[in-house]
Specification:
By secondary structure, the chain is of the alpha+beta class. The chain folds into three domains: 91 residues, Uridine Diphospho-n-acetylenolpyruvylglucosamine Reductase, domain 2 (2-Layer Sandwich), CATH 3.30.43.10; 111 residues, Uridine Diphospho-n-acetylenolpyruvylglucosamine Reductase, domain 3; 206 residues, Vanillyl-alcohol Oxidase, Chain A, domain 3 (3-Layer(aba) Sandwich), CATH 3.40.462. It contains 14 helices and 19 strands. α8 packs across α11. The longest helix is centred in the last third of the chain and has 15 residues. The radius of gyration is 22 Å and the shape is globular. 52% of the residues are buried. Bound molecules: flavin-adenine dinucleotide. The site of flavin-adenine dinucleotide (FAD) has 36 residues, from β3, α5 and β10.
């Protein structure tokens, strides 16, 4: 494999002439700013960053990278925990210049650019009273979140993000531009609904949106000492609730603003609710929650984008992040005891553990219908160490690893790929489980030389 330093200046300037967007080299003033990603722990030094403006730029970049035997990374929103939108020495295909959000009101479908971030999409769809199921922090990229699956507030009601993906335009390893959907290039359409950026660079996504202007949402907190009781209750409650109700359960520290001062900097078991039905039914349902005497409950009707961006302010770009994750089939007393242990020693104010329930519409899709293999698991769990200070990098990393190691023996074996760091091939295989071999065959057909390898890699 070559690096940019092995290429002569004519080769680089000829590539520059093909691009509509800019090219950023290590010698450029903009280089250090341009190479940053969301996770401040990632410090990679690409040889060249191609700021693509359209699909032609992406085709030129893929051809340039392949013909010159360069390591290629694809950057969508740049939010990946493991920094998989960047590489050292090679070529970064940056998609942040490929943004558009076009709503087709005749069938509520939405065509979105490969480099959009979710808050740009939500702002437009909300104007039409529509929502696309995505995640829980609106600054996340559409590209990476969608290609990995997409777990969020609307998953129980409308399914994962991939369950609402109707079509994609993409540039393949050989430079071809293709459209994939349920009728065209069906093997690729299957593979990209969970298989990540392994199969090509997606320049646009078309989603099914749903009429959902507002939701009833907000957090409830209980002292961490009650986490075992609350988790055991939640396990039965959410499983039997209608698809309209979702809520992720967390161990966390309550930040100073905007919460009452008596809660500040203490450890809690939290549930952040989202309800898509009518207020009367919700109020009846919520009485059960209030009967559990939360120390704080602030739940009300809000625009869907307000829920999506509720936590954005706590998590600005550039902080230190370390993630570990697993799926779980059940919440046993042995498991909840570990949540009490590790939830009582959260290392920094922003570090958290989340459990997302995989049920409702998300669990009614077959475990082989998309690469997302854990449709039958009950929870996608994630331990997230976060802090603004690089000096705390080890502290947050060790807490996540210890939390993960304590609970991994009780897990379903693999993790949601978008919640993983760069953790090696065995973890990738465990995450795709029975779907891995089919993904590997499709990879062999479309990217036999594995030019798209900076990802949760499927080996051809
Ligand atoms: P990038 O770093 O740009 O890319 C990630 C990977 O996807 C890379 O391998 C990249 O090559 C590939 N990729 C990106 N765009 C494209 C494209 N257009 N074509 C081909 N390959 C592409 N996930 C959830 O499901 N639900 C959540 O609620 C959620 N919350 C999150 C909150 C925060 C604060 C963060 C940091 C992450 C969260 N995630 C969540 C995880 C998120 O889905 C992943 O981090 C995802 O990889 C981010 O996508 P991106 O495009 O921003 O990342």
């Amino acid at each position: 494999m070559k690096t940019i330093k092995d290429l002569n200046s004519e080769t680089i300037s000829s590539f520059k002439n093909q691009l509509n967007g800019n090219m950023v080299l290590p010698t450029d003033a903009a280089y250090n700013e341009t190479r940053k990603v969301y996770n401040g722990m990632i410090d990679k030094h690409p040889g060249l960053i191609a700021m693509c403006k359209n699909a032609d730029d992406v085709m030129a970049s893929v051809n340039f990278g392949r013909e010159n035997d360069l390591l290629i990374a694809i950057r969508g929103g740049g939010h990946n925990g493991g920094g998989l939108g960047l590489c050292d020495d090679g070529l970064v295909i940056d998609l942040s210049g490929i943004k558009h959000v076009n709503v087709n009101t005749s069938n509520n479908t939405v065509k979105v650019g490969g480099g959009n971030i979710w808050n740009e999409v939500d702002a437009v769809t909300h104007e039409y009273g529509l929502a696309i199921p995505s995640g829980m922090v609106s600054s996340t990229g559409v590209g990476g979140l969608t290609l990995g699956g997409g777990v969020g507030y609307l998953s129980r009601k409308y399914g994962l993000t991939i369950d609402n993906l109707l079509e994609a335009d993409m540039v393949l390893a050989d430079g071809r531009f293709v459209t994939v959907n349920a009728k065209q290039n069906t093997d690729l359409f299957w593979a990209i609904r969970g298989g990540g950026g392994n199969f090509g660079v997606v320049t646009s996504f078309t989603f099914q949106a749903h009429p959902q202007k507002t939701v009833i949402a907000g957090p409830t907190f209980w002292p961490i000492e009650r986490v075992e009781e609350i988790m055991a209750w939640y396990d039965g409650f959410i499983q039997n609730a209608s698809d309209d109700l979702s809520g992720f359960i967390a161990t966390m520290i309550v930040p100073e603003s905007p919460f009452p001062s008596e809660l500040h900097n203490k450890q809690f078991c939290a549930i952040v609710w989202c309800y898509t039905g009518d207020a009367d039914t919700f109020n009846d349902l919520f009485k059960t929650v209030l009967n559990l005497n939360p120390v704080f409950a602030h739940v009300g009707e809000m625009p869907y984008p307000a829920l999506q961006s509720m936590f954005d302010g706590f998590f600005p770009t550039g902080m230190q992040w370390y993630w570990r994750a697993d799926f779980f089939n059940k919440l046993t007393p042995e498991i909840t005891a570990q949540h009490l242990k590790f939830g009582s020693k959260i290392p920094t104010p922003l570090s958290q553990m989340h459990l997302y329930h995989i049920s409702g519409a998300a669990s009614r899709v077959g475990a082989e219908d998309t690469p997302w293999a854990y449709r039958n698991a009950k929870y996608a769990g994630v331990y997230v160490g976060v802090d603004p200070d690089p000096k705390n990098a080890n502290k947050i990393t060790n807490w996540c690893k210890d939390y993960f190691n304590a609970l991994h023996p009780y897990s379903a074996g693999g993790a949601y790929s978008n919640f993983m760091m760069d953790e090696g091939q065995e973890r990738v295989k465990a995450s795709y489980k029975h779907n891995y071999d089919r993904l590997a065959k499709i990879k062999q057909k479309f990217d036999p030389n594995n030019i798209f390898k900076v990802n949760q890699n499927i080996k051809p």
